[in-house]
Design brief:
The complex is a heterodimer of chains A (244) and B (224).
Chain A lengths: L6 H22 L13 H28 L2 H32 L9 H13 L2 H6 L4 H29 L9 E2 L2 E2 L3 H43 L17
Antiparallel strand pairs in A: 1-2
Chain B lengths: L1 H18 L3 H19 L6 H22 L2 H5 L2 H7 L5 H29 L9 H26 L5 H24 L13 H21 L1 H4 L2
The chains are: A mainly alpha (244), B mainly alpha (224).
């Protein structure tokens, strides 16, 4: 399977969309009457948050496929998706903090369930790599990681669903609710382009990482075929899958 | 399936009764934690949401001790191999271990809740007791299910004692949150308020959802 196929075109499309999104954010989207310029971080923060959570859930879906088929490729897909989502989640927490500081006057607000739930999910997924790292047997590592990814993948939408439906009072702005989109068309178009750009960025990085890992595995297999085991550097203990 | 569960549960309770490894340590830990809270908070009595928080954080940490030890005998003395050789469903082990953990938690709380009422709790515990029992049962089921799953997940890792708590705490935050919110009005200074149904519903949903997930994925942790 070649993950590199179509990657240059996809990367070009991602660059184009993200550039367009940035242009729209700074030159087209209307300035928020209430919050002013700082509101523009919304076009980065919200797409990143949605894509990170979707990536966590996707990691869970790949994990289900891994446990059903015992195909190590699904484990690698799940690992890469969760790894990328973790990086995005750090970005969400940082951009959210900046926005909160500018908008509410505090870096962190405990009263707001949306923030707390996101932090809990981040802390949970921060255990994914240590869990993998502490299991040496490759098959067992993959299975344990999949069990974790499924449990956490169910935990994520459940917690967010509970927050969305159970709370009465909130201050965290809601992009979408039952009454529709809570922003003017100019903002909404910009948001959509930024969201598509972020999704494309995630897919591009995911494909890129998959291609890189596959190439490394194949190179190793070829080296082994050519020169035998002694030429190879020993496989170090690692959280990432090391072969297929 | 039912006979296998009964046999495994009987084995676990018998082992605990003879070795007295987990439950006394958990109970002692809980009482020590109350004392630590007394000095940490510098309060002679607590009530309302502080009381609920102290009780549930202590219960959570005491549970972590038991959860860490849950599969140690199986892992170290070949119990897993013996179980896998037996012609029974693998989920039987999940159900039996979760029930055993539930029994352990119930016994610990039988000691810890009175100790909490004597040492720290300001308001009278007796009028809150029936409602508190409901919260304890719902929360204990959630802790037992997730605890068994995480314990099985962590048992064959290198750093078992570290992996189990760091996985367990984020997963159990919803349980602690809902249990503490449901318990807070029971410990109100003015007398026990009504039990908030919404938080009980969240606890019940958590129990059901994670019960089903644990049931679905537990098998894969036992393969070799």
């Amino acid at each position: 399977m070649t993950y590199g196929k179509g990657l240059p075109a996809l990367a070009a499309l991602t660059t184009l969309t993200l550039t367009a999104a940035l242009a729209l954010v700074f030159f087209f989207a209307p300035l928020d009457a209430d919050q002013g310029f700082v509101q523009k971080i919304f076009y980065l923060h919200v797409p990143m948050g949605i894509v990170a959570l979707a990536g966590f859930v996707a990691g869970g879906v790949f994990a289900v496929a891994h446990l059903r088929t015992r195909d190590a490729r699904h484990d690698l897909r799940s690992y890469v998706a969760i790894h990328l989502s973790l990086i995005l989640a750090v970005g969400v927490l940082i951009t959210g903090s900046i926005w909160a500081r500018a908008s509410w006057g505090a870096w962190w607000v405990w009263d707001e369930p949306m923030l707390v739930v996101f932090l809990i999910i981040f802390l949970l997924y921060a255990c994914y790599q240590p869990l993998r790292f502490s299991i040496e047997d490759r098959d067992r590592q993959a299975r344990a990681a999949s069990v974790f990814a499924i449990t956490a993948g169910a935990f994520t939408p459940l917690c967010f669903g509970a927050v969305r439906f159970a709370q009465e009072a909130y201050i965290h702005p809601r992009t979408f609710d039952s009454t529709g989109v809570g922003m003017p068309p100019g903002m909404f178009v910009t948001f959509l382009v930024a969201f598509v750009g972020m999704t494309l960025l995630f897919v591009t990085l995911w494909k890129y990482e998959m291609a890189a890992k596959h190439t490394t595995f194949r190179l190793r297999a070829l080296r082994r075929a050519l020169g035998g085991e002694e030429d190879l550097a020993p496989v170090r203990r690692s959280a990432a899958p090391q072969s297929l | 399936m039912r006979r296998a569960i009964a046999a495994l549960l009987r084995k676990d309770l018998l082992v605990e009764l003879r070795t007295k490894e987990a439950v006394p340590a958990m109970a002692l830990f809980a009482i020590s934690t109350f004392v630590v809270f007394h000095f940490g908070l510098d309060r002679d009595t607590v009530e309302g949401d502080v009381a609920a928080g102290v009780l549930w954080v202590t219960m959570l940490f005491a549970a972590v001790l038991g959860i860490n030890r849950l599969f140690v005998a199986e892992a170290e003395q070949g119990g897993f191999d013996g179980f896998l050789l037996a012609p029974v469903e693998r989920t039987a082990l999940l159900v039996a271990k979760a029930l055993a953990l539930l029994v352990f938690l119930a016994i610990v709380q039988l000691v810890a809740v009175p100790a909490f009422a004597i040492l720290l709790l300001g308001p009278d515990v007796f009028q809150a007791l029936p409602a508190l029992l409901v919260v304890l049962v719902l929360a204990d089921v959630g802790i037992a299910v997730i605890g068994t799953l995480v314990s099985a997940l962590g048992i064959r890792t290198r750093a078992r004692d570290l992996i189990v708590p760091i996985l367990l705490l984020p997963l159990l935050i919803p349980v602690v949150l809902a249990a503490a919110q449901a318990t807070a009005p029971l410990f109100a200074q003015a007398g026990a308020g009504p039990l908030p149904g919404r938080w009980l519903a969240i606890l019940a949903i958590y129990d059901v959802v994670f019960g089903l997930i644990a049931y679905a994925v537990f098998d894969f942790l036992l393969e070799d």
